[in-house]
Amino acid sequence: MLPAVRKVNRRTNESGVTMALDLKGCRALVTGGSSGIGAALAVALAERGATVGICARRAERLSEVVGRCMEHSPDSRMWVVNLADPDAVDKLAVDVMDAFGGVDLLVNNAGIPKRRHVTALDIDTITAVMHVNYLSPMRLTLDLLPQMLARGSGTIVNISSIAAKLSAPGEAAYDASKAALTAFSEAMAVDLWEDGIRVMVVYPGVIDTELFTLPDNDVPDLPVAAEPVSVAVDAVLAGLETGAAQVFVPEWFHGVAANKEKDVGAFLEGTASYVRQQRHQKQQEQTQ
Ligand SMILES: NC(=O)c1ccc[n+]([C@@H]2O[C@H](COP(=O)([O-])OP(=O)(O)OC[C@H]3O[C@@H](n4cnc5c(N)ncnc54)[C@H](OP(=O)(O)O)[C@@H]3O)[C@@H](O)[C@H]2O)c1
Hints:
By secondary structure, the chain is of the alpha/beta class. The protein has 2 domains: 230 residues, NAD(P)-binding Rossmann-like Domain (Rossmann fold, 3-Layer(aba) Sandwich), CATH 3.40.50; 32 residues. Helix content is 50%, strand content 15%. A 7-stranded parallel β-sheet has the order 5-4-3-6-7-8-9, with helices on both faces. A two-stranded antiparallel sheet has the order 1-2. A hairpin with a 5-residue loop joins strand 1 and strand 2. Helix 8 packs across helix 9. The longest helix has 29 residues. The structure holds NADP nicotinamide-adenine-dinucleotide phosphate. NADP nicotinamide-adenine-dinucleotide phosphate binds next to helix 1.
């Protein structure tokens, strides 16, 4: 077991504002660490000296990732857990605290898309997505917050999605869950501003992971080429370094989100036109 109470080193700028989280000796928990962004980020954190805990449902995939973490950070651990189960989330928090004695950095990364047209959605699907993408990370956050508050330090990184800002078509349940995650994160950042707790929201655009080939999901028409996972990891690490409140991956998506806000009606009309063209093109390809 690691030491129970440890002040995490942070740098401050000339105004006394917290800038960076020192990853060396930091105790990090990354949910959804069995693949994609979570797996790569877990290894990157371990490489930088963090003791990393990862969790997800697929034990074999977790074993492989935690093995890579342990090469750099031998106390790293894994937990097999279904985050859709609220009791399992609470148990995870207790188990991680028992093993690490505290969590300095919580990365709520696990997520599911359930991509489908709104007319194919049902309330059970919407609820399931909300549980994994919103309620579970908030539950885990509330479970781990008291020990951060007691120490007067802690960093919470919530992996949202550009879909929260752009309301991507064909995935309304997912978009809404990520928008909820964003709103909670920003309000929480304000509430905790004076307590030494930093909250960062990450907005990946299209990153090359298994998210786009999961079963029980529509195949998406991706409007841009997928970026490698390393781009997302580097952006998160850079955000931690500067103490950023939000990170877009890639950064130019920030401009797209800002443009949408200038004329939401025109943006939605343009998106509908793009979807219509894509559908038309697909129909033509099928008839050839
Ligand atoms: N890839 C992108 O372009 C993109 C864009 C925007 C946002 N994001 C967000 O980035 C995060 C990581 O996704 P990714 O792209 O890296 O896809 P991924 O490879 O599919 O990773 C998703 C992770 O979440 C875990 N997970 C899903 N349901 C779970 C559950 N019920 N209990 C525990 N763990 C669960 C998965 O593990 P198990 O299956 O082993 O449980 C996996 O480790 C997600 O929140 C996603 O919404 C991704």
